[in-house]
Amino acid sequence: MRFGMTPARTRAVFQWTLLKLGRRKHKAAREHGMHALQHFYASVLLDAGENIKALIEYLGHHDPGFTLRTYTHLMPSSQDRTRNAVTAVFASGPKL
Questions:
Q1: Which of 36, 32, 37 is nearest to 14 (CA)?
Q2: Are 33 and 21 in contact (CB under 8 A)?
Q3: How many C-beta neighbours within 10 Å does residue 95 have?
Q4: Ranges of H-type helices in 21-60
Q5: Under DSSP, is residue 75 helix (H, G, I), strand (E, B) or coil?
Q6: Cβ atoms within 10 Å, residue 42
Q7: Per residue in 2-44, pLDDT tens?
């Protein structure tokens, strides 16, 4: 749970934002900005460290492959995560 938000609460906030921006009034189309808003939302969550499984749920995607193909480029690589994990262990020094 990131930022004190449950998956259900995050989805509710996102849906409320879309409603306020007129999704109910207009079809969800790129020219109305809904696609851009959803991509921004996903980008922010991935940058904050949210996992792809939670993102799939938040966005309401039914095909995990679609989400992975669309947003994988925004995820940190496993090499970066590995390097950061090892660096953190050595930076903290030995535990006595």
A1: 37
A2: yes
A3: 4
A4: 34-47, 52-59
A5: coil
A6: 22
A7: 455 666 776 777 777 767 666 555 455 555 566 777 888 888 8
Give yes or no for a contact between 52 and 68, defined as CB atoms under 8 angstroms apart.
yes
Both tokens of 32, joined, read 């109305």
Q: Letter for the amino acid at 71?
A: Y
3-state SS class at 37: helix
pTM of the model: 0.50
State the residue for tokens 């950061």: 84
CB 21 within 8 A of CB 34: yes
Contacts for 29 with CB less than 8 Å, ≥ 6 apart: 35
Q: Are 48 and 75 in contact (CB under 8 A)?
A: no
Alpha helices per DSSP H over 1-96: 7-20, 34-47, 52-59, 64-71, 78-91
